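Entry 14. Structure prediction run on the chain below.
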Amino acid sequence: QVQLVESGGDLVHPGGSLRLSCAASRFTLDNYAIAWFRQAPGKEREGVACISSSDGSTYYGDSVKGRFTISRDNAKNTVSLQINNLKPEDTAVYYCTAGRCGGIMDYWGKGTLVIVSS
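Output returned:
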């Protein structure tokens, strides 16, 4: 069974940093664009970052530009999301997905919770 498993979510203070990781089992991540979405309580799901499979181009949501960095390690079959200068509004469940940037995401992980609070 194809699986995406996120890790790295935690409770952090505003201004802190986190690194989220996404690991795949039973498929190869480098065949897919990988995107991170997030969903905060009571809010709609939001795409925050995507990295293409072809040339590694990256795309970010306006609310996270300059603070979030997505990267992939094809040798380890993982994708990471570095989050700096965390803000309370970054509190959400973060999901790793595989598919096409700006298009349909074929696979979803179960999410990892990030809470930003003082």
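The chain has a mean pLDDT of 95.
Filed with the rest of this week's runs.
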